[in-house]
Amino acid sequence: MSGAFTMLTATAAALLTIAVAAVRTPGVARVFLLTQVVYWSLSYLARPIVLVWVQPEPGFGDNVADPRLAGIGYDHGIETVMAPVVVGLWVYAALAVAYALWVRHRGKSRSPDLAPAAALVPTLAAVFVLGMIGRFAALATGSAGSAGDVDSSNPVLSGVATLAAVGAIGLIVYYRSADRMRTIAVIGGLLLVQLQWTVAVESKSPIMGAALALAVRFALDGWTRRRVLGVVGLSIVAVGGFGWLQSIKLSEGAVAATVAADAQYPAVIQPFMSILRRFDLLAAATDAYYMGGRPWLSTGEVLQYTLQSLVPAQLLGVEKFHSGTAWADEVRGSSVDMTRVSVSLAEGNINEGYVLGGYAGVVMAVTSTFGLLLFACWALRARQVVFVALGLTVIGAPVLFERGVLGSAEVLGKSLQIAVAIWIVDMTVREFRQRSVGRSALAIRPRFDAPTGTGTGGLR
């Protein structure tokens, strides 16, 4: 029995344990945990299985066949780089099981509020409209950006455009109508908008966030057989169409290179190669192994950068630390020539923790991720719109799946700014609604014609 097989078996067992714990956990936490299982299965299970099975030769246009792993042998390479991943997944599985047992010991939790405030849905609608205006402006000015971009060419438009994602996710989760067909039309339209934006920016995050929001909605309403089948069907369609979406904006040369790279893989897995390319946390685990224990950031630097991430750059006065860019330049750059590549990478919580603090760092990192998951579950049923907004941004950003402590802090820093903007919109919507109610009350108030109290509509 090879070492790679042992590691992959341990990985599968840990992911299965998390899935079982998720099934026994009620509410939104179940959705988040199961999504993590799917995400990490593609990154840490499906991709290494393909590498060990096929033993592909690295070549142009193929980022699945890692030349570093091929150089030391895929069997030995997978066995080595997956060791911290196995530890991290089993620690996370222990946390998930402990939480499931705690929830069951407390008894069935109360059903979360579907609409934390009366003005929430109008606020989210206004936020969505503002965000769509920002998206159209970004497309018109050529500053929409794409996946992996280091900096936005127009941070203001980028921030406004982000409101569209939060608004769409929020409406998918909270919009309710007595007319069932209207509800289906609204949610279907929002899913289509997010799908189109996924194609426009060449990023999987918009449509993944929308799909996760739909699952969260079902978790709030209660699962039925029809809803389960709907989510499974949507997932199958997404998997089948993922390669097509990725190829829409590729040049003919890039498509030809991709087809040539896929030719060395068995025909049965070729339709799924585009998915394996996008779920690339195994590459980050390989980055961590090739650091060879060399220091990256000190504990003081981690704390400093984490706190700075929560402060707006305009108030901070200095350029913020970007963990994805630093990972590409300094961590992956230690074993791969990145001198001509400028990109922001997903480091993953386990891999970042291992580079920063070894196995103790892995435990800290996965515990932080689990704490963020619990916070998002609480925020989505809070009464204050600021906390609801933070919970929605966690759905829209892949912090629970592919970012570490530093990356999560960066996303939360941006989320705080978005939450403040949504709070301002919420106050405006509330004021408008109050004035509308006031005008309606004046319109129907009885009008008296005489001091005696007699008149049109008056009491006699």
From TrEMBL:
Keyword Transmembrane helix in the entry? The reply is: yes
Q: Transmembrane ranges? A: 81-102, 114-136, 156-175, 227-245, 354-378, 385-405
UniProt keywords, alphabetically: Membrane, Transmembrane, Transmembrane helix
Query: What name does the UniProt record give this protein?
Result: O-antigen polysaccharide polymerase Wzy-like protein
Q: Which organism is it from?
A: Pseudonocardia cypriaca
